Fold this protein.
Amino acid sequence: MFSSLPIAAVALLLLSAESFRPHNKNKKRTGSDLLLRKQLLRIRSGGDALDNETQPSNDADSIDANGDDNDSETKSRKMYNKQASNWVRTEPRCLSDFTGRPVVFGMLEDVLNAQHDGSDSKGKVVLDIGCGEGYCARKVIEMGASKVIGSDISKEMIACALSTADGDDDRFKYYESAAGELLKGLNDNRDFLGIDSAEGAFDVAIAVFLFNYLTTNEMEEVILQAFQALKPGGTFIFSVPHPSMIFCHDKGAIFRLDSENKGYYSSRNEKITGIISTIDGTTLHIMSIHKTLSDYITAIFSSGFEIVDIQEAGVTEEHMILHPEFFESVKDRPLHLVFKLKKPY
């Protein structure tokens, strides 16, 4: 619906009051919404405390923005290889599990439930780029996908994904690969993955909080390769921190960046550290390579994708009712952007 609009017009639509959807009282609840509400109720009642042995340590997601590594992929690989086991989870835990990923799952529901070409009732094959320990991959299988192929730069994350997926379940296939070598990794592993070729092999692709670890050029390359990996009419959904998060550096907020005195435009492609908290109070250190809204729109249009939907995700009224203490410091602000794209026929 946005594919023919200039970037400025898309930006105005996105930043309008109507585009901020978390507070839409009339929106029909999805299966993902109901599951999330159940989880929040359990946590608030004290019945879902986390085992300390499985909680991420305080430096689980830390990264030195001024370190010796020259590229963002090397930094990400080292960080997640070191801390992979701490990220294994089967239920929502960190802030974005409640505020960001459910929006991704909501955008997926109609795609995963739709019949391919109007007649084929088989489930969709999903490509999970930057799959981590498989949290989203397991969810899309639960939602009806027939198969998910996940790639990640961290071999330890892949090991965790394999172990959590019960090993012999052929619906899950994981392999180690940098996001920038998406097509090469798929083709190199095509016999193991059960595909003839990477090009045109997938109905759906997702990249959940991957691009905040890549530069603008790296992101553009991944989006282009995702376009090539999809079948005509295929869907690509990705989530990122909201670009306005660069202005969110309140010391008491559970999601904030170390971005004081940083400029929106002058900080493009700068690695900015920050923190995000879990529902049990654990602090995770994060990194975001800052991009402007135009960076995302330009990358999308240059790849050939059409924009189906853009949603700003944040704390909802229901979040505040169920767990006000946790969400209070980040309420009434856009925390994430979620894009739903389509490859034209």
